[in-house]
Design brief:
Elements: E1 9-14, H1 19-33, E2 37-42, H2 63-80, E3 84-87, E4 109-112, E5 115-117, H3 132-146, E6 150-153, H4 163-179, E7 183-187, E8 195-198, H5 203-212, E9 217-220, E10 223-226, E11 231-233, E12 237-243
Parallel strand pairs: 1-2, 1-6, 2-3, 6-7
Antiparallel strand pairs: 4-5, 7-12, 8-12, 9-10, 10-11
Length: 245
């Protein structure tokens, strides 16, 4: 059975603002077009994101970047048709009995082109070093509150190795197994045990959402240009694989 027929709601779990659009924007648009209610859980505000050179470059490393990225996320998710947005660590995405907290962007370093690893300096409240049990309990709290038919997040490598992506894969998978909700990991190429979606018809929607994340990237035709100058095609094809419960 197609994953599009699993149910009336899907929860996407991402680490930073812009991840939802870069990696899953076309899939979100497709689900919305099928009348499926899409919710988004974002783990951090992307406080350590590098800013695109230009008029916004003064935001880098400042508290104003946090505000800017919150606003960018709001605009991008509106463009995609996301119905509900939540921050990890804040109710309802906070385990019962625990005071609200903010998980901070852990940062990263490039090990080689296309593969990231942990940053050399990590703040004490960084997502990547938060206890996995706590992060998973927060995700589980939101799942129990929202009751999605499916949760979607990164593969075990976090797509390209970012430690926050890896942490959210681990936490979302653990949470889904704890509460009995199906979990699907994102595939970047077709696989025999996954479902592949070619969603070129949503290119204009994804492009509009990407442009909302102006502090982090620019759009050049059918490509994204990241703050460091890296180029990649806008993703309109994506796969999902259900992992065992």
């Amino acid at each position: 059975m197609s994953l599009l027929g699993l149910g009336a709601s899907v929860l996407f779990v991402h680490a930073h603002p812009d991840d939802e659009t870069i990696s899953t924007g076309a899939l979100i648009a497709e689900l919305v077009a099928h009348g499926i209610r899409v919710s988004l859980l974002t783990a951090s505000r992307g406080e350590r994101g590098e800013v695109v050179p230009g008029p916004l470059s003064g935001l880098e490393g400042t508290a104003a970047l946090t505000t800017a990225r919150e606003q960018e996320l709001q605009r991008a998710t509106a463009a995609l048709g996301v119905a509900d947005r939540f921050w990890l660590g804040e109710p309802p995405a906070r385990a019962a009995g625990l005071a609200p907290r903010r998980y901070r962007d852990s940062g990263m370093t490039w090990i080689r082109p296309g593969l990231a690893g942990p940053a050399r300096d990590v703040d004490g409240d960084a997502l990547a070093i938060a206890p996995l049990a706590e992060v998973a309990a927060d995700v589980a709290a939101l799942i129990l509150a929202q009751r999605p038919a499916l949760v979607v997040s990164y593969d075990s490598g976090g797509g390209y190795g970012h430690p926050d992506h890896v942490r959210m894969h681990d936490a979302a998978l653990a949470a889904c197994r704890a509460v009995g909700t199906p979990f699907a990991e994102i595939l970047h190429e077709p696989a025999a045990d996954g479902e592949w979606f070619v969603l070129d018809r949503h290119l204009s929607t994804v492009t509009a959402a990407l442009r909302c994340h102006a502090s982090q990237l620019t759009v050049d035709g059918s490509h994204i240009v990241h703050s460091g100058g890296q180029r990649e095609p806008i993703t309109t094809s994506i796969g999902l694989r259900i992992l065992p419960g």
